[in-house]
TrEMBL record:
Protein name per UniProt: 2-haloacrylate reductase
InterPro entries documented for this protein: ADH-like_C, ADH-like_N, ER, GroES-like_sf, NAD(P)-bd_dom_sf, QOR-like, Quin_OxRdtase/zeta-crystal_CS
Keywords: NADP, Oxidoreductase
Domain Enoyl reductase (ER), residue spans: 10-320
SMART domains the UniProt entry points to: PKS_ER (SM00829)
Keyword Transcription: no
Pfam families named in the record: ADH_N, ADH_zinc_N
Single GO molecular function: quinone reductase (NADPH) activity
Keyword Oxidoreductase annotated: yes
Cellular component aspect of the GO annotation: cytosol
Amino acid sequence: MKAIVVEQNGPPEHLRYQEVPEPCPGPDEVLVRTTLTSLNYADVQARRGGYEAGSPPPFIPGLDAVGVIEALGAGVEGLRVGQRVAVFTSGGSYAEKVLAKAVLTYPVPDELSDEAVSGLTALVTAYNTLTWAGRLQQNESVLVHAAAGGVGSLAVQMAKALGAGLVIGTVGHPAKAEFVRGLGADAVMGYEGFAERVLEQTQQKGVDLILDSVAGEVFSQGMRCLAPFGRLVVYGHASGQAGSFETRPLHRQSKAVIGYSSGHYRRNRPGLLRPTVEAVFALLRSGKIRLQVGARFPLEQAAQAHTLMESRQSTGKILLYP
């Protein structure tokens, strides 16, 4: 079968489209013929060598896929050959066929298309940062960083669907602002001086919940506009820099800084993700949220897809088709 392989860490040119051995499902695994896979920024960082837990080259990148079950390993129950599923893959997802643990394999409802449920990592991350980690309550205000990206574009929609009040999005380029407003954001702004602008938008109260995938100075500014009793959820470090903050406001104003990683749940508590996937599928079926597809590439053009993601010019999810 064909797959994309990271031959060595570095630029997109190190992604190679080549023949690799077809995988065979082991106990409690399924083999899925891929119909599409999605890009996540974690794929870019893994290719660069930026994730401490990333695989050493050569490896197949990618976290999730949609496809049809071709074979079941020993002990798999509740799934069948020919069933359409979305999966978190055991290995990389940039391949014509992938393996997934049965516990991380989710049947796709008939009324949802493959593209509708693509980007499983982004869907789960957006929902869990708002709910599990962020503890969003009715009418609370939310600030979503990188609001035009894969997770951010979903988080803006989900926040509104889950009953948030004021929803603010930040973007890295003014051209993305209209896209984010179209998702339901009440206000959109750039990163420069955003803390002061958020305070202006909230009558100096600050926001109740911040979703931060950027870290660095963005995190530090976020702490300045986080309301008393507010939660700041960190789920990435796209800036490449760590954030820092003063601890005294945490106990003086009952603020909280919370970390979240869908990958950590996949590896250590995979069974806890199924209720989230079911909730997300229900939101998709209701029409309250929609996964925004910004670009589509054939699998062999994965390098071009990575280049687009790194350019910061894309919006929504980028998809690869075998």
